[in-house]
Amino acid sequence: MGALLAAHAAHVLRLDFAECSDTVPDYVRAMRAAEADGTREALLAECPNADRLDDVLTPDESITLGTRLTKYAAHIRHAQTRSPRT
């Protein structure tokens, strides 16, 4: 599940860049959207009660949760790269 989340995050980031860039061709935007849709569908396939996920959180709550998860992941990653104190 973690690898799927990481892949989806990467695809959404690439889609966001493509959507915001003036130099990215339309076909590239379409490819980025398809990649993000594909990983989203794969994530939903792994989630129990996926048909009810939109009822669980409001859009603002979803953004807040995503932000918190990102901060926690960054903290964990940072902790793993530090050398232990002696």
Write the layout of secondary structure elements.
Elements: H1 2-20, H2 26-46, H3 53-56, H4 59-81
Protein architecture, described:
- The chain contains four helices and no strands.
- The longest helix has 23 residues, at 59-81.
- With 86 residues, the protein is an all-alpha fold.
- Helix 1 (2-20) runs antiparallel to helix 2.
- The protein has helices spanning 2-20, 26-46, 53-56, 59-81.
- The model has no long low-confidence stretch (mean pLDDT 81).
Helix-and-strand structural type: mainly alpha
SSE order, as H and E? Answer: HHHH
- Radius of gyration from the CA trace? 16 Å
Sum up the overall morphology in one term. globular
How many extended strands? 0
What's the story with the biggest beta sheet? none
> Would you tell me the overall average pLDDT?
81
Percent of residues in helical segments? over 70%
What is the beta-strand fraction? Answer: under 5%
**Contiguous runs where pLDDT drops below 50 for at least 5 residues:** none
Number of helices in the DSSP assignment: 4
Whole-Å distance between the termini?
A: 35 Å
